[in-house]
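INFO batch 0412 | record 1 of 1 | parsing
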Amino acid sequence: MNSKYFTLLLAGTLLLSCSNNGNQFDASGSFEATEIVVSAEANGKILAFEVEEGDVLQAAQQVGYIDSVQLYLTKMQLMQNRKTILAGKPDIKVQLEALQKDLDNAYSDKQRIENLVKGNVASQKQLDDANTRIAVLKSKIAATKSTLSTTTSTINEQSGTVEIQLAQVEDQLRKCRIINPLNGTVLTKYAEKDEMAATGKALYKIADLSEIILRVYISANQLPQVKLNQKVKVHTDDGKGGFKEDEGTIIWISDKAEFTPKTVQTKEERANMVYAMKVKLKNDGTYKIGMYGEINF
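INFO prediction complete | emitting tokens
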């Protein structure tokens, strides 16, 4: 009886020992992801908002828009203002054309008078008058060019001011569209269609769960055993009493010690100083934010 009891006790001890050795992990922690809160960039009523928790969204996908009627009307008004301003822009070529014709005629008259003077038919005074007329026309053309150029520059400046105002309104109109910033899964929805939005108001939270981070904590004695880009084994409960194993990569190791997080069960363990470490791994949908996991170096 004693021999049989001893045999059973030994077998149980060996089995327990094997089981414990198989479940010894170097570090443990919980899964997390980079979460981004998407906020409104404009004020107004949310006219469309096609977002639900759990939706998988693509980067640059439009998921809704905010009322922009007043901004659109402002844009139309500015476009009309620009059109009115540009309508007053002078046509320099047309306005100088008549003066240029007068100058051409003045040169022709001068040439004719020069020939008459050579034949003693016209006087020197007539030739001087012809030269004076040419000089006056040249001065008038130069003055007109200067005046028209100044007027054109002023109109261009006024038009440029309106262009800047139009660009500002265009930017505000773009911000009325709710654009999703990255590929990811909607975690939390904070707003609904027909609610009023204000700049900075949170609309929804999203995270890219195709890759997930396991944040674990290691002791100072374990630091020499790990390095950046090192491959490690990640273990999670498989729901059947065993463990699912996957491979992850160490992407960050803290250079400062901290107290063990309060999620650790015992008070004694929480008093220990540890180093945080992040392990990245591919996620096929198995891993969820907040799940616990363990690693082996």
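INFO post-check: Residues 39 and 201 are 5 Å apart (CA to CA).
INFO record closed
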